[in-house]
Amino acid sequence: MPRRILRHLLLPLLLPLLLPLAGMGTARAQAPAAADDGGGGRQPFLFDAYVPLEQSVVAAIGRAQAWLAETQRADGGWNTAHGANNCGEVAFAVMALMVDGTVPGEGKYAKEVGLGLQFLLNAQRENGLIAGTRNAPAAQVPGPMYQHALATLALAEAYGMSANPRLRTALIKAVNLIVDTQHSRGGWRYQPKPDPGDISVTVMQVMALRAAGEAGVHVPKETIDRAIQFIQSCWNPQEKGFRYMPGGGPAGFARTAAGLVCLQTVGRHDDPLVKDAVDYLMASAFDPQRNREWYWYGHYYASVGLYHYGGAPWKDYYPKIKQKILEDWKRTPHYGQMLETSWAILILGVPYRYLPIYQR
To answer: What is d(CA 248, CA 233) in angstroms, rounded to the nearest whole number?
Structure first.
């Protein structure tokens, strides 16, 4: 096993043991409390999110990754349902190929990961934006801040696993753009300018900032503080879930999953909204009446949020979503669309815990 992969696998296991010896007393240095085991007890932090990585899952991930690799273009991009140069979807595909330990220069899909990352680097503009192609007018690029956040997340994950200085340079420019385009109320929207935000675009920016911060790139505290206030303002107290924007509107599965991940991403694991959000997800995840919009997008966020929450909810959720994907892929080992397939690979691959976003 490559040394850098072994380091990322062992670090989250050893950190709770090492920090007390180092005398580090900040909230960030403390391991999260153990999750409820479902029976009123608490399980140790190291084991409360353990689920077995079955051979059937490993094989399914491998077949789906092979399809992604086969459909990649020579320039590192993919032709997708949302355009030929969608950097957000390229980012998801790159992370899906990295989920079981591949990094730039090492691993089964090192070539494909390297090509995908180079595609993102080539797309970055002078102002730091990574969306569409470098010369396409930003106004003509669909959802540029969606694309930018996901590309930034992929660069941060790759840099965290490889320490490549070229990635760091691009990552700093990408982070600066996110910081500079935050609205005064704390959110982000589709265009790279300070517009009133929505929860979907905002969560993606926060995940990118968190990953960059974990990789050693400076993220201003005030940026995170404003983002927390915005996410909390999207809470629907009647339904106990998150809505799309502050001020009204229904809660939804995908929105609540995204809001949960955002709170966890900024370290608000003990926020009272977290438990209610988890309850909402567990009640609606597999209910076709309550989870009809953005199905796999919602489950991608749910898999991240419930894994970080741990305990009984995660151990109940993962086998169900795993079985659904395996059943779906019995005849064809992918969803025929790059984005949905990438999300499913990332969901199945959570037990690998190689990507920094899955380190607890």
So the answer is: 10
Going by DSSP bridges, is the β-strand pair 241-242/235-236 parallel, antiparallel, or unpaired? antiparallel
For residue 52, give both structure tokens.
Answer: 């077995």
> And the tokens for 45?
């932090």
CA distance 121 to 87: 10
Contact present, 69 and 96 (Cβ < 8 Å): no
Contact residues for 5 (Cβ-Cβ < 8 A; gap 6+): 101, 103, 106, 161, 354
Half-sphere exposure of 136 (CA within 13 A, CB side): 19
Helices of type H across 99-196: 110-123, 144-162, 165-180
356 secondary structure, DSSP code: G
* C-alpha–C-alpha distance, residues 344 and 296, integer Å: 7
**E strand or H helix at 241:** strand 241-242
CA 114, distance to chain mean position in Å, is: 20
d(CA 269, CA 329): 34
Which candidate, 260, 164, 176, places its Cα nearest to that of 215? 164
Q: What b-and-e string marks burial along 248-267, b requiring 16 or more CB atoms within 10 Å of the CB?
A: eeebbbbbbbbbbbbbbbbe
Read off the pLDDT of residues 180-219 as tens digits, 9 standing for 90 and up: 999 999 999 999 999 999 999 999 999 999 999 999 999 9
**pLDDT digit string, tens, across residues 215-268:** 999 999 999 999 999 999 999 999 999 999 998 789 999 999 999 999 998 889
Residue closest to 296 by CA, chosen among 241, 236, 345: 345
Round to whole Å and give the CA distance between 5 and 353. Answer: 10
